[in-house]
Automatic annotation (TrEMBL):
Principal subcellular localization: endoplasmic reticulum
Cell location: Endoplasmic reticulum membrane
Keyword Transmembrane helix: yes
Pfam families referenced in this protein's UniProt entry, alphabetically: Reticulon (PF02453)
Keyword Secreted: no
Organism: Parambassis ranga (Indian glassy fish)
Biological-process GO terms, alphabetical: brain development; endoplasmic reticulum tubular network formation; neuron differentiation
Alphabetized InterPro entries for the sequence: Reticulon, RTN1-4
Sequence intervals crossing the membrane: 20-48, 134-155
Full protein name: Reticulon
Gene field: rtn1a
Amino acid sequence: MGAAAIDLLYWRNVKQSGAVFSSVLLLLFSLTQFSVVSVGAYLALAALSATISFRIYKSVLQAVQKTDEGHPFKAYLEMEIALSQEQISKYADKILLYSNTCMRELRRLFLVQDLVDSLKFAVLMWLLTYVGALFNGLTLLILAVVSMFTMPVVYEKHQAQIDQYVGLIRTQVNSVVGKIQAKIPGAKRKEE
């Protein structure tokens, strides 16, 4: 994750983080009420209304003041926005790497290469059936965005206490997993 994204999530610049957080939440809440097509169309209309109004305002202002400043968006119109072949290749390589890694891991889990890992995956999928019954995907996305903008700050302020409790939980989980592995035949983990 880039430094700019980390600064955004840790609220280093409160105005910028607040603007991004509220914009993303507004978009997600809009998607709970309207279709993606409607939200996209409304966003495009809002942007067009703002730019057309600004362009007309600047044109009238130039006519009244008898100045020749030119097009108000000239700097943006002249900016290069094309992706280079290197950028496309870099991102395509990353997507290919992640896709292949994901497919290998899913193959390993579904074909039970390691019984314990496949059982963990089965328990996770079983728990996700309950999560899916309670929440839809958009609600989970909203919760994820809220968590992304709140959890880092909370952790930063209360790191010692959180680390202490996470350590206790990790010890308990490892103890239970060890007991389960000892009772399941063929579930002994290889030495790491």
